Amino acid sequence: MDKFNANESVDTTRLEKLFLESGTLKILRKNEYMVRQNDKTNHIGFVASGIFRLTRIDTNGNEWIVGYSFENDFVCDYPSLINRTDATVSIQATTDCEVYLLSLSKLNQFWETDMETQRLGRRIAETMFAEIYQRLLGFYCDTPEQRYQTLMKRCPDLQELITLKEIALFLGVTPETLSRIRKKQLQK
Prior knowledge:
Layout (H helix, E strand, L loop, with lengths): L12 H10 L1 E5 L4 E3 L7 E7 L2 E6 L5 E7 L4 E2 L2 H6 L6 E4 L3 E7 H8 L3 H27 L2 H11 L9 H8 L3 H13 L1
Antiparallel strand pairs: 1-8, 2-7, 3-6, 3-8, 4-5, 4-7
């Protein structure tokens, strides 16, 4: 899957090169954690292969899937990383994964290299904000069917990579609701 979490208009080639040349390769097996909710996080990752699931457990013990990172995506709990607070999500390998980890200090050094890297950092932050904002609007304003259509338009092969139950949790619906939505889509 290409760039699940990034706007195609942002060229991250230079940043990817930094991870591949200066990052530390870590291999995680299926179900292993890159970081757990409430632990300290000091790294950002570049996914060389595999899929990561970002989850949060609420005060009632319910687990919510809040995001995914696929091959060629960056992965971290960015607000916790930059604010140096405990992780608000867990990042778990849903398949065997290879990820290049880079410390926040190395990333900050990269941002300070020149104006081009500063602009890149700003564009990435703006893109992240826009994606999160659109997702928030979707949860408030769109029907579950519209959210599913938007997701499938953005990631048509997603159903081949993760389970329908996980897609349902990501969309904030039950698996039964997702089945009804999919059945309705097939009848059109």
